[in-house]
Structures are given as structure tokens and as C-alpha cells.
Amino acid sequence: MLNPDALGAFYPIIFRVSVVVAGVISIVCGYRLFLAGVFRLPPGEPPTEVSGRFGGAEFTLKSLAPGTCFALFGAIVIGAMMVSTPPEVGRSRMASVSPGGK
């Protein structure tokens, strides 16, 4: 069994790998949804459009499908995890007290 110090050393690695795996699963599921063509618009209907602003930048996504949303979400999760600070594990040690008070 791992002692607490070794477990504390592995925790940040396990955390980061699990977040990357969740992001990759989201991207793969989104790609498969995109290929399946879920929610295709009938001919002659206007395409879906989503716009957003962040600071001075503006972006627009046209003909957005659910697969695109999943893939974008997975990419954002992985990107946010890469730029965030790693989780910290701290342990405090208490002074040992002898039963006799010495």
C-alpha cells in the first residue's frame, strides 16, 4: 500500500490525466455525433448561428451542430486544465506528545 506521501505525489498526476481523458472522450463523442449528422436542417431553412464577444475579440459559429458543441467543450476543458495551476496536496505534522508529559 502507498504511504500518504507517495499518494500525495501521485494525486496531481492522476487529476490531470483524468481531466485530459474526460476532454478526449468529449471530443471523440462530439466527432462521432458530427459524423452521424444529428439535427440536419431541412433544405431552405436558415442555419443556426451563435456569436460571442470576449474583450475586444468577436467570434461567430454558423451551422452549429451538437457534435461541434461537444468537441468544442472537450477542447475548452483540456485547454483550461493545461493553463490552470496544478492541485496541491499539503500535510501538516503534529508534534508527538509522550504519555508522561515529558
Overview of the molecule:
Strands 1-2 form a two-stranded antiparallel sheet. It is built from two helices and two strands. By secondary structure, the protein is mainly alpha-helical. 50% of the residues lie in helices and 12% in strands. It has one domain.
Explain briefly what this protein structure is.
By secondary structure, the chain is mainly α. The chain contains two helices and two strands; from the N terminus they run αββα. It has helices spanning 4-36, 66-83; strands at 49-54, 57-62.
- What class, by secondary structure content? mainly alpha
Low-pLDDT regions = none
Structurally, the number of domains stands at 1
The separation of the N and C termini measures: 34 Å
- Strands, total number: 2
Beta content comes to: 5-15%
Continuous helix count: 2
Main sheet characteristics: 2 strands, antiparallel
Helix content: 40-55%
SSE pattern = HEEH
Shape: elongated
> Based on the structure, what is the oligomeric state of the protein chains?
single chain
Write down the overall mean pLDDT.
75
Radius of gyration equals 24 Å
Topology:
Layout: H1 4-36, E1 49-54, E2 57-62, H2 66-83
Helix pairs in contact: 1-2
Which descriptors would you attach to this protein?
102 residues, 50% helix, 2 strands, mainly alpha
